[in-house]
Design brief:
The chain is an alpha/beta fold. 58% of the residues lie in helices and 8% in strands. Helix 7 links the parallel strand 8 and strand 9 (244-245). The chain starts with a helix and ends with a helix.
């Protein structure tokens, strides 16, 4: 049966996993799920430089493992996770950046902390917000997560930037600002509590003192005749939680490598035998502090179980959705691989058709070609120049040859009309090309929008190439059919149009009572007026043809290109894929390594959060 202690262990495990997977609220990790880290409670150790922070941590752990020295020693946050093991088990430590190595010699742990700090900051006094993650497994600890932060300072020393004071405060605030962070404020007893850097900062972020635990160190170093009862009993500065006094090892004990267990015993003896503090002895010391923090952590977790469970459930839903997008592992047999490829192609084809038919944007651009580009191109054809009096006279004269025409210059008409119809080839070809490029763009967009294809870059490329090749074939058919429409207009002129011309002459000829202005002898068939009438007649015929082609060119383009793209865009590709063997199909389904890694990380997160949900649910029912 799960217990609250199990959940504290689980919270530690989730925090560690969040860090491994990049789901933490600080640093440079992938911030996909940073709120989960923030929802989990932890304890941040805050204090001024040389306030005794490191000694307090070592007392809680029962091991001498932190770097020591003067000035700024802690230059990167240290996320310390304590895991209680069974009695008699060997103590060891593990770093997150060295997961395969166990440290049983804690002097090597200290050296690795120093070396890992120097790797990022160099052998200087610079600081870095990137944390070091350390786990310690021991029967002498309680399950707890502590974050050791650089000591607050008031001035920059040589080798530090001028901004170091604000930089450290900003770093510390980034942790203690979080509402689920328990603040362990370390202050030395031999200094005025009113000047404590830790208390000042804690008061800013936690004015009610609900999250702050005050720790008073160096009680044994106070001047004779003085004590810290005003602080420890809450008269000098009151917090919601009781103050805890700590007596750290002396420098002489450190130099002699006095065992931490012996140091704890000496600490207990100090409080028990002190005339000032003996009445508080049961609530003093590093062992009591560790238990107090563990109890508070348990209380915070109890209060936060509903919100943590809700957040984990939401995260699981998001990860399940992401796994659906990323796709499941690929089968190894050829039949299953072929089926998967065809399913992916169908998903793409569905999206492509939605673009054409209006379910998605893009298909309207094809109508824009017919409604705007084609009419505009037809209007811009140079018929004014082609049907100028000078050009008409030249064409008609060349058509007549040595024998001028007697009544109507039929050959001249034919040549003028046929040469004018050639101009329609340009807009016809341009319409085919414009629709072709729209279709190519829709293919590109559709491939990008097919989520299932994202994991297979090789298949994406092959599919795009096959689609472009098919569209090229459709374009060639579109060219042939559309230009054939233009050639058909040139091959056979509408007879009815020409039959009207003699009638018009009769209606305006001599002896016709309806003639308003009878022609004079000067109205010769070789005057400019005669050629203007020819140009006008040809222009009317060309206008009639233009209206016809404005309607038939779109029909041809849609029939040869759009309709075929909807019906048979992937037919040739299906034939090719059906002939491939298992090895060739596997190449098509070769995944992007980055995507494979993303799926693996997603799967690990999913398993972690499902496990977390199950265990937290079990505790919630047994509370």
């Amino acid at each position: 049966m799960a217990t609250m202690e199990n959940v504290i262990v689980l919270v530690n495990r989730i925090q560690r996993a969040c860090t491994v997977l990049g789901d933490h609220g600080g640093g440079d990790g992938a911030a996909a799920l940073p709120t989960l880290w923030e929802a989990l409670p932890s304890v941040a150790v805050v204090g001024g430089q040389s306030s005794g922070k490191s000694s307090v941590l070592e007392s809680i752990v029962g091991r001498d493992f932190l770097p020591r020295g003067s000035g700024i020693v802690t230059r990167r946050p240290l996320v310390l996770q304590l895991h209680k093991t069974r009695d008699g088990a060997q103590e060891y430590a593990e770093f997150l950046h060295m997961p395969k190595r166990r440290f049983t010699d804690f002097s090597l742990v200290r050296k690795e902390i120093e070396d890992e700090t120097d790797r990022l900051t160099g052998k200087t006094k610079q600081i870095s917000p990137v944390p070091i993650h350390l786990s310690i497994y021991s029967p002498h600890v309680v399950n707890l997560t502590l974050i050791d932060l650089p000591g607050l300072t008031k001035v920059a020393v040589e080798g530090q930037p001028e901004t170091i004071v604000q930089d450290i405060e900003n770093m510390v605030r980034s942790y203690v600002d979080k509402p689920n962070c328990i603040i362990l404020a370390i202050s030395p007893a031999n200094q005025d509590i009113a000047t404590s850097d830790a208390i000042k900062l804690a008061r800013d972020v936690d004015p009610t003192g609900e999250r702050t635990f005050g720790v008073l160190t160096k009680l044994d170093l106070m001047d004779k005749g003085t004590n810290a009862l005003d602080v420890l009993e809450g008269r000098a500065y009151r917090l919601q939680h009781p103050w805890v006094g700590i007596v750290n090892r002396s420098q002489a004990d450190i130099n002699k490598n006095v065992d931490m267990i012996i140091a704890r015993r000496k600490e207990q003896e100090f409080f028990a035998s002190s005339p000032d503090y003996s009445h508080l002895a049961s609530r003093m010391g590093s062992e009591y502090l560790a238990k107090l923090l563990s109890q508070e952590l348990e209380a915070v977790i109890r209060a936060r179980i509903p919100s943590i469970t809700s957040l984990i459930n939401k995260t699981i839903d998001e990860l399940e959705s992401e796994m659906d997008h990323l796709g499941r592992p690929i089968a190894s047999d050829a039949g299953a691989q072929l089926y998967l490829i065809l399913e992916l192609c169908r998903a793409f084809d569905k999206i492509f058709k939605e673009h054409l038919e209006g379910g998605r944007p893009g298909g309207d651009r094809i109508y824009g070609v017919f409604d705007n580009q084609l009419p505009s191109a037809l209007r811009k054809l140079p018929f004014d120049r082609h049907l100028s009096v000078q050009n008409v006279k030249r064409v008609v004269s060349q058509a007549d040859g040595y024998q001028p025409h007697l009544i109507a210059p039929e050959q001249g008409y034919r040549r003028l009309i046929e040469s004018a119809l050639n101009y329609f080839r340009g807009p016809a070809e341009a319409s085919v090309d414009a629709v072709h490029f729209v279709l190519k763009e829709l293919v590109r967009i559709s491939i990008g929008e097919t989520q299932e294809l994202k994991r297979f870059p090789t298949l994406q490329a092959e599919l795009a190439a096959a689609c472009y090749a098919a569209l090229e074939r459709f374009r060639e058919d579109g060219w042939k059919t559309t230009l054939r429409l233009v050639d058909m207009e040139a091959a056979y002129l509408t007879v009815e149009f020409f039959r009207k011309l003699p009638q018009e002459v009769e209606k305006t000829g001599p002896g016709n009572p309806r003639t308003a202005n009878p022609p004079t002898p000067s109205d010769d068939r070789y005057t400019d007026g005669h050629f203007r009438r020819i140009a006008s007649n040809v222009s009317s015929y060309i206008g009639m043809v233009s209206e016809t082609l404005k309607n038939t060119i779109p029909k041809s383009v849609v029939h040869c290109q759009v309709r075929e793209a909807k019906r048979s865009l992937l037919n040739h590709f299906y034939t090719q894929v059906g002939r491939k063997d298992a090895k060739q199909l596997a190449v098509l389904l070769d995944e992007d390594p980055a995507l494979m890694e993303r799926r693996l990380q997603c799967f690990k997160r999913l398993e972690l959060y499902k496990s977390a949900r199950d265990e937290i649910d079990a505790v919630a029912w047994t509370r």
